Amino acid sequence: MLNRTIAPGFKQVEGISLIKPGHIQFNNGCNLFHFNSGDQELVRIEWIFGNLRFDPANPLLNIAVNAMLTEGTETLSAAEIADRIDYYGAFLQVDYGYDNSTVTLYSLNKHLDKTLPVLHDILNNSVFPEKEIETFKMTQQQKLQIGLQKNDVQARRKFNKALYGDTIYGYGAELADYKKLNQLNMQAHFKQMYQPSNCTIMVAGRVDAAMLNLMGDTFEANWKNNQSKADTTQPPLQPATEKFYFVEKADALQSAIRMGRPTINRTHPDFPAVQVLNTVLGGYFGSRLMANIREDKGYTYGIGSAMTSLKQSGSIFIATEVGADVCRAALTEIEKEVNLLKTELVPEEELALVKNFMLGSLLGSLENVMSHADKFKNIYFSGLGYDYYDYYIETIKSITSEKILQLANQYLDYDNFYKVVAGKY
Hints:
This protein has helices spanning 61-67, 78-87, 112-125, 130-147, 151-164, 183-193, 209-219, 271-282, 288-296, 327-343, 348-364, 369-380, 387-398, 401-411, and strands spanning 22-25, 31-36, 42-50, 91-96, 100-108, 199-205, 244-248, 254-263, 300-309, 314-323, 418-423. The protein is α+β, with helices and mostly antiparallel strands and 425 residues long.
């Protein structure tokens, strides 16, 4: 019988075994990657499109067109689309990201012959009805007005604008921007962006030859490119020269703090090592920022740091909300923790804990075939291969305190951080 009073033995993660995809390139230019695993007769199919070049004159087009894809086609209303998907126990969602926009279908395999034609219709014949556009504008403007009352929203918008300027990464919607949306410009944007040569399809779940043939019949022969090629290039990033921003809220009980700087993305050799540095600083519940500013000082319920990896850039940032009366003190403690990493070696015991946390998180994130597909997307859209994950694991296992110290001096320059405070200061 298992003796539960004795802790399980410790085993270090030596490597991970990732499910690798099959690949089909359709004659229309669309790439399809498929991951077959699992006993359930269920698949997740993602149609991933590169966002078109950011247009400052109509900055909401990428976001709005993606959000309204399911609001009607030439033959189906929004309600009819929803009814057809629901009837077959399927689920449909659209998601916007800075670099790509995605349409995702979860469906039982036995109903794909009914659900895929609905997706084909959406990706070819969306019409963006005027009535639905007006409803979208009204609801989104209301959401924006509510969002702008929140300090963390204000801090995030200011921070992104400071790092990236008037680009797709730095943009924050304004109420007036919604007035620029109309049926004509949304349809033109849709025709240029949602075409097979600008699409990558990811299929994960129970995949067989019949299913792939059905995908080919629906999205190869019957899905054609338009004359206008999708322009997915983006304007150069425009970091601001001003480093400190204060959004005053005289009645604020809490102040939102966001600070950081543009840095490397996943394609840089230092990225996994800087992720270790970030985890020590604020990347998990036992991090230094949490231990000091939450557990010791009691200034906040939560504080963390994170790294982003985008197509054109990356960033490292710290975010929290603290009591308005201790905002300056919290900033002082954040600076102290950053500078400690630049001057003192991380103790071996602490570094070992962080390594185990990161390797365990990697293993824990591979819970099903869909998460394997997600891992592939990380490297595919970064132009990397599967050896990235071998390099990632080896970097974590072998990194030393001396290397952490060197990286902290290279990447954590507190004086050059962009700093935003929304609330009281």
